[in-house]
Amino acid sequence: MFAAGKTSGGGAAATVDAQFNYVTMLLHGDGTNGAQNNTFLDSSTNAFTITRNGNTTQGSFSPYGSNWSNNFNGSTGYLAAPSSSAFNVSSNNVTAEAWIYLTAFTTGGSPFISTIWSLDSSGSQNTFAYVYSSGAIAVGINGVNEIASSTGVISLNTWYHTAVVRNGSTTTIYVNGVSVASNTTSVWANTGARPFLVGSTSQSANYYFNGYISNVRFVNGTAVYTTAFTPPTTPLTAITNTSILTCQSNRFVDNSTNNFTITATGTPSVQRFNPFGTATAYDTSVIGGSGYFDGSGDFLGVPFSSNLTMPGDFTAECWVYVTSAPEAYGGILAFSNDSENVGWNILIGGTTTKFHFNVAMTYTDTATSMTLNAWTHLALVRSGSTGKLYINGVADANTVTTSATATCPTNPQIGRYPLISNRNFFGYISNTRVIKGTAVYTSNFTPPTAPVTAITNTQLLLNYTNGAIFDNAMMNDLETVNQAQISTSVVKYGTGSLAFDGTGDNLFAPARQNLSFGTGNFTIECWFNWSSAPSNMAVMSSKNYYTVSSNGNWLIRLTSQTGIAFASYDGQSNESYKEFAVPSMSSSTWYHLAIVRSGTTVTLYFNGTASSSGTLTDSKALTDGGVNGVYVGQGNINNNFNGYIDDVRITNGYARYTADFTPPTAAFPNTGPY
Length: 674
Prior knowledge:
Elements: E1 23-27, E2 51-53, E3 57-59, E4 69-73, E5 78-84, E6 94-102, E7 113-119, E8 127-132, E9 136-141, E10 145-152, E11 160-167, E12 170-175, E13 178-184, E14 194-198, E15 210-220, E16 242-246, E17 263-265, E18 269-271, E19 277-278, H1 284-287, E20 290-294, E21 299-301, E22 314-322, E23 330-335, E24 344-348, E25 354-359, E26 362-369, E27 375-383, E28 386-391, E29 394-401, E30 413-414, E31 426-436, E32 458-462, E33 479-481, E34 485-487, E35 497-501, E36 506-509, E37 522-530, E38 537-542, E39 553-560, E40 563-569, E41 575-581, E42 591-598, E43 601-606, E44 609-610, E45 616-617, H2 624-627, E46 630-632, E47 642-652, E48 672-673
Antiparallel strand pairs: 1-47, 2-21, 3-20, 4-15, 4-18, 5-14, 5-17, 6-11, 6-15, 7-8, 7-14, 8-9, 9-10, 11-12, 12-13, 15-16, 19-48, 20-31, 21-30, 22-27, 22-31, 23-24, 23-30, 24-25, 25-26, 27-28, 28-29, 31-32, 33-36, 34-35, 35-47, 36-46, 37-42, 37-47, 38-39, 38-46, 39-40, 40-41, 42-43, 43-44, ...
């Protein structure tokens, strides 16, 4: 049901968006009248009826696509490649580059610095690049004995390309292709094998990075940049002398020829938010989709069928993005249960932090630990009497041996282990395929890079692409709550809008880091068309507005026919609130609304004109969207929207409008900035 792209209101192709790399939600609302995100389809020839349970939803966040970053929490998270002579720089020319997006400067250690990367060691001999809380960027050795340091050039909530280059005895730091610091020194404290860290260093204060890092490349032997240059506009590649290339994939992986194992410590996460945006609009054949399971009873029921009984060879595969481990074994593909356990399954091993798999009552935990907050491809394969679980294309060391028939149980499920509480899955599942009679993988392989299809002997195929309301930024799966649906009768642009009846309807976007604004700039905008008098009707909000928590919450609501309010709340006792005056609104009329924070100033633009009642000062760290999620059409205090909303766009880190403007004359673009 997902559509590939969207055209402008006049039918012409939409232009690119120069700030699309800051777009973290884009909802056009095009589709079939009355459609929601609640119907899941089996695309195999069996066309099984899939039963939705709980709030299971589907959307465009998936493991496919080329543009990614890693998010770091500023306190515990970092990545590490093992010690290797590949990181012995000796007297070599060197280029170390990365895209960075800081959401907060570090407050730990002295001085206060945020590490981008480090050539590390357990002792004092190391070299690392870092950003001071002043915004200065530097490269130093043995703590913070600087090789080179700039003045303040890095601001929060902005993508920057950074490169540290040693060319002969000169070390130069480039930001966005411009030299910001340079120094002549023959000393880099790096001889011998050592590990490579991203987001931290082993120095005593740790100096963690808080924000996003993308496309880290360390080239040992080449000064890639020797003069000013245009920063890369597409993901980096493993050029000659590349020692490591990471933070650019759907999982924690090194894309250099060294293929180092990347170990995640703390809670770094893989995110679609990236410095490049996208050159290709969302397309189900390229990106696919996923199902979201919130761990509180969400699952998909698959009917009993002898076609899902496996007497011999078979393959069951999917991608998973696990957001937290369950209390006990949680179901991913659960085609057995405790009363009918002669089937097969792939589970999460609960507190063991391992995967678990079973074939005909022969089971084991994996030797490999699972990784949270990253996409992992799983393939359970029985070939002959040997059952293996391939994790990201690599066979786990533990296997099972059985020739017994794996019988389909009465109630196979996806996202929960049947009949037992607390056996739920937390996170996303994508591209589920079950094949009877064929061992598709018999040796290690490269995981799929595009959605898999119904090849010969496919008995079940869930692509999770039958949702009606999806995110063209490809970052969020949205739940259509109650009767929230597509309307094709009342439309601003395209073929549909988002319809809400005012009695509990809303769209809910589960928590994702890209929905956290922090203290940065942002633009929240949409077209709205109300059906009943707008007395405190919420347009959008973070989930926990008015809830006591440590997260910064926010709310946009229509207070009257001449007032629109924006409020933020820190969950304790501090609220910033302003009711902006707007011209009198009428029902059944489309209006463009934009809430913009630039610095600490919040401005409301109504049909492109700043409200005459002035601005609101608000410097709160608005993080609730990244912790609890975001509502469209509801404000968590029973003030539901009654009417239609079209072209919802959240731009995180960028204030699109700082003066009056002409409202958009076409649907928002789906691509950019290149």
